TrEMBL record:
Keywords from the named record: Hydrolase
GO CC annotation: cytosol
Organism annotation: Geotrichum candidum
GO MF entries: fructose-2,6-bisphosphate 2-phosphatase activity
Biased composition (Polar residues): 1-13
Protein name stated in the entry: Similar to Saccharomyces cerevisiae YOR283W Phosphatase with a broad substrate specificity
Keyword DNA-binding set for record: no
CDD domains to which the protein is assigned, alphabetical: HP_PGM_like
PANTHER family the record matches: FRUCTOSE-2,6-BISPHOSPHATASE TIGAR
Binding site residues for substrate: 33-40, 85
Length: 268
């Protein structure tokens, strides 16, 4: 696997048939939060800090891969944040799903064709500046003492939105052009919240009525949000018919794997 900091472009579609191709003609995007890290467990802010998965994080991301395999969900393409906690999550998911990954250049392993993984800084969490690696309680105390808010530190939310604006139109158009049925998009909790706001408020996506209100919350580790975009959509306005069909889903997590999710503002 190699890293790219430029705007990602779609890798070639893999051979074989994905679950989405078999069931309906849509681009189905699984927006996945990375697995748990020690920082998550201890209530420490991460942002751009390059933390790794802990044992819990490895277990739950492998469980997600096994769930996808059981459900017959196989990606045609994979995008991931370039930070280690997302890289490791991606590798575990693909291993569990029975799909090894190749480099982002489009070269595949021998044997069955596997999806390429594009790693990008565009999918990184919001930087928290000097608050990174601080316990959330201490960070809140510092922020309050300075008469500021958490949003005043590090990367502005608008900058994360600009990163989304830079990648999303090309990401969707490439997927539609190549007929990619299923895509994994592995990123961070704060990023997913900002992305969801963009998809609903700016891009025009709707939320399925079947999603319970209590499910609209900070994404749990390895939870996935599903966005469906019809392949015959209006290419000038693809979001108009896009639907978020699931949000923060964790059907792969048993009580053994579940942990209490700390509802941080972002930076996860």
């Amino acid at each position: 696997m190699t890293q790219t900091n430029s705007l990602p472009t779609s890798p070639s579609k893999t051979e074989g048939k994905s679950a989405a191709e078999d069931s309906s003609k849509v681009v189905r995007i699984y927006i996945i939060r990375h697995g748990q890290t020690d920082f998550n467990q201890r209530g420490i802010l991460q942002g751009h800090y390059n933390s790794q998965l802990n044992a819990q994080g490895h277990a739950e991301s492998k469980a997600l891969g096994a769930y996808f395999k059981q459900e017959g969900i196989r990606p045609d393409a994979v995008w991931s944040s370039d930070l280690d906690r997302c890289r490791e999550t991606t590798a575990n998911i693909l291993d569990g799903a029975g799909s090894s990954s190749s480099s982002s250049t489009g070269n595949t392993d021998e044997g069955d064709a596997h999806p390429s993984v594009v790693f990008s800084r565009h999918l990184r969490e919001r930087s928290l500046g000097e608050l990174e690696t601080m316990p959330i309680v201490a960070a809140k105390q510092r922020v309050a003492a300075a008469g500021k808010t958490m949003s005043d530190y590090g990367e502005p939310h608008s900058a994360v939105a600009e990163r989304i604006h830079a990648i999303w139109p090309s990401f969707i158009n490439n997927a539609l052009d190549q007929g990619l049925g299923t895509i994994f998009f592995v990123t961070h909790g704060g990023y997913i919240k900002i992305l969801a706001k963009y998809l609903i408020n700016e891009w025009g996506a709707t939320v399925a009525e079947t999603i319970p209100l209590e499910q609209i919350r900070h994404p749990a580790n390895t939870s996935f949000t599903v966005l469906e975009v019809p392949m015959d959509c209006d290419r000038a306005n693809p979001g108009k018919r896009a639907v978020i069909t699931d949000f923060c889903a964790t059907p792969h997590l048993t009580e053994k794997h579940k942990v209490k999710q700390i509802n941080f503002a972002d930076g996860q």
